[in-house]
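**Protein of interest**
===
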Amino acid sequence: MRLLRKTIHCRDSAKFARRPDGHATFLRRVGALCVSAIMFVSLLTTSARAQQQKLPRVFLIDARKLAETKQRIQSGDKAFDPALAKLEADARQALQQKPLSVTTKAGTPPSGDKHDYMSQAPYFWPDPRSPNGLPYIRRDGERNPELNKITDHQTLDQMEAAVRTLSLAFFLKGNEEYAGKAAILLRAWFLDPATLMNPNLEYAQFIPGVNTGRGIGLIETRGLADVVDAIGLLRGSKSWTPADQRGLEDWFGKFLQWMQESRNGREENAAKNNHGTYYDLQAATFALFLTRNDLARQIVETAKQKRIALQIEPDGRQPLELERTKAWSYSNMNLDGLMWLARLAEDVDVDLWNYQTKDGRGIRPALEYLWPFAVGDQKWPYQQLGGFDGRSLFTLMRRADGHYRDEKFTRQLSKIPKLDPGTREHLLSGK
């Protein structure tokens, strides 16, 4: 508004300069200066808009940092060469990936439609006291190999990984072959009538002898948030058409509606542990993708009390994750989800990074609680099937860099080993 008033004032000055009085020369000079100022402001505005248009439409990835990485690469900066070489090697391998689909699984969901996603609960096993093993019973943290007979989860993970790699390689290198392959994989999973996945998870993580699907199954699609970013990285490619874009927006719109209205979706939304966190992560990402920013803002604003205050104790412990047989893994996993949610919140002007309740519950305390165990200053006192590895927290610490700039955090960060030069994280963080 202030800039607008100055612009109007300059235009008035130029008009007054045409008056045939003793001040004409002075006013003409003022008018000329103001016209120059208007042109300068216009150039700045045009430049800012052009810069904004160059930014990829991504949400989990920091668009500005990634755009800066691309600019540095194009300017001849060799700092990213090892990471870029590894990315391109991965992309060339992804070029060999055949299109993937839920319709290739051997079994058929109760609906009779192979287009419906289906998976079996990983931690449930046959009951040895039952003649036929039914109903299955829970053995938390122990994966039943039976679930590998249903391939939807595996093929979904493969599609997500390939599309992430190909789209990033296209954005940074401009190789249309990468974009073309990503488009083929996306169409096969979401758009082609013969192979597409129906936008629901009615039959995810079913328990034999108990149910045909659960809300908990929504945890398996958390990687779709990365797919949304991959779609944004394909903008500008001739291989990714407006029809493709509309088709994906329609699919995610229907999937988000299913999340909000279905029994399974409502159950997962009500989950108090990491499942609730990753429900919010998906819902907020899809809302941003669909330009439903008010919904995204509502989700992340509500997460202050619904997720952070509920899940984290004042001392930083996450009790609902600590009760699991893989307490370290799940504590990291939930905090990881909360931090990604904080990243999304930045896009709608909500600060979850620094949010704390009056008694001190927040993302930073949760990170600090885990820190001494990660670096070996203290021994992890909870159960962790499969062994303890503190390095999983280092990635979270690096992501928090920039949000916590005090001396204490800087000291902690200095103890983390340097990243391998070929790690993709260099490209995403610009470091």
